[in-house]
Amino acid sequence: MISKITSIFYATAATFLAIAIITFPDQSFEASIRGLNLWLEIVFPSLLPFFIVAELLLAFGVVKFIGVLLEPLMRPLFNVPGAGGVVMGMGLASGYPSGAKISARLRQENVLTKTEAERLVAFTNASNPLFIFGAIAVGFFHDPKLGFLIAICHYSACILVGLCMRFYKRNEDDRTDDDQRNIRGSTFGRALYALHHHRTSNSEPLGKILGDAVMSSIRTLVMIGGFIVLFSVLNKLLFLSGVSSVIASSIEKILTIFAQPKELALPLLSGVFEITLGAQMISQTDHATLFAQVILVSAILAFNGLSIQSQVASILANTDIRFAPYFFGRLLHIVFAVILVMVLFKPLYVERTMLSPSDIPVDTHTDYTGLSVIALEWLSQYGPLITIGTILVGFLILLRKSQQH
Question: How crowded is residue 127: how many other Cβ atoms within 10 Å of its Cβ?
Answer without folding.
Answer: 25
